[in-house]
Amino acid sequence: MKRNNWTKAMTILLAAACLFLAALSGRAAMREDNYLVQVEGIPVSKELYSYFVSEALVQGAVKLDEAGKPLDMKALREVVKQRCAAYVAVNSELYNRKRALSLQLKSQAADRTAYYWRVFGNYYSSIGVDKQTITAVMTGQAAREELFRALYDEESSPRKVDDETVQAYFYGNYVAANCLRVYQTITLENGDRAMTPGEIKTLESKLDKFVAACNEEGNDFAILSQSEDYAETLGYVIPTEAVMRKGSGDPPDKVIEKVRLFSPNKVAMLQVDNYYLIGQGINMREEHNVAKYYQNYRGDCLWALKGAEYDMLLQELYQRYRADENVGAVEQLLRKWPWREIALTTTAPTTTTEAPTTTEAPTTTEAPTTTKKATTTTKKATTTKKPATTTKKATTTTKKSTTTTTTKKATTA
């Protein structure tokens, strides 16, 4: 019996020793080859590090010399290290909250991955970034959006924004109308020219008749039905439903406030600079319109109300995560980086992928399209929606807060 116990004890000791040596060997291999940065002990892969190098360069986070090489390599390394920390921090915080991505956000992440890989796949491959890494980045974006929802749109959260506040923001800043623009220009073979005073007077007379015909019809769709009879006057542009937001700059806020007065049963015309905005109002408060408008833009409104505060909370969260470089591996990667080739390429992504788009990623209502077939040139009415994304903000403003606490690190990097 004693011999059996001794044998069992020796077996356990040998197994423990083997595991210890394997762990040391694995850590050495990881330290030398497989990671560039560790964030609170969580390794960030070479592929993900390369992505953040590219992102920092594309976004102009550091100044470059004529050959496309950073003037301050230490500054670049610090920026990339911070982005690695941000990536791990958000995933860890979501993990700590036992919060999974919604199906909507998972779908958006998959769509973003497919788009970026389809358009920029060759570029990413040239810097050693594979599709799996792009998936990780887009999922990280989705994690920021999910965390935003958890803080500001979850009933149990002390930071929950009540629906009355969101509604007040929406109805105070958004207007909708079926509208189009008609410009005071004449289209020629070699470009456009401004109308003469006589031509402007003639155009205004025709537009007045169009507005009168719409109001004589007197229903919700008058501007749409009458546009067929006045196609030449309108430049063959069909009025399109447009959602406008104050603060967008186009059209100016003072014009948006006038559009707000447009009646659903009456067509009105405004002159704005060198064009005429003709529209028929849409009552977004009607029950059948609430889902189409308020619910569709609710995420944008929530972000407008709390996005800046969220950025500050994220910045504080990032600062709590220590990132350590694998100096030798980083230096080796950057020595081999194709600086000049990347600087000269025209296929690198030019949009930021840091920010959350909006919490509910509302779909933008399309603006009227422009067709130059008539002597009167018309251009589109502008709808307002922030891209997204985003966005939208991984390493932005700083401010202290006590909301977001981290107790455990995720292992998703």
The level of helicity is 40-55%
Instruction: Quickly count the helices.
Output: 13
- What radius of gyration results from the CA coordinates? 28 Å
End-to-end C-alpha gap:
49 Å
Query: Order of strands across the widest beta sheet?
Result: 6-3-8-7
- The class by helix and strand makeup works out as alpha+beta
Q: In one word, what is the shape? A: globular
Determine the strand fraction and express it as a percent band.
5-15%
In short:
By secondary structure, the chain is α+β, with helices and mostly antiparallel strands.
Features:
globular, 13 helices, single chain, four-stranded antiparallel beta sheet, alpha+beta, 413 residues
Structure overview:
The protein has 413 residues and is α+β, with helices and mostly antiparallel strands. The chain has a domain at 33-160 and 306-344. 50% of the residues lie in helices and 12% in strands. It is built from 13 helices and nine strands. The protein has helices at 2-34, 46-58, 73-96, 103-126, 131-152, 163-173, 197-217, 222-226, 253-259, 287-290, 294-319, 327-335, 339-344, and strands spanning 35-39, 42-45, 174-183, 185-188, 191-194, 240-245, 267-272, 275-281, 323-325. Strands 6-3-8-7 form a four-stranded antiparallel β-sheet, sandwiched between helices. Helix 3 crosses helix 5 and helix 6 (163-173) packs across helix 11. The longest helix is centred in the first third of the chain and has 33 residues, at 2-34. The chain is globular, with a radius of gyration of 28 Å. Mean pLDDT is 79; it is low at 5-32 and 351-408.
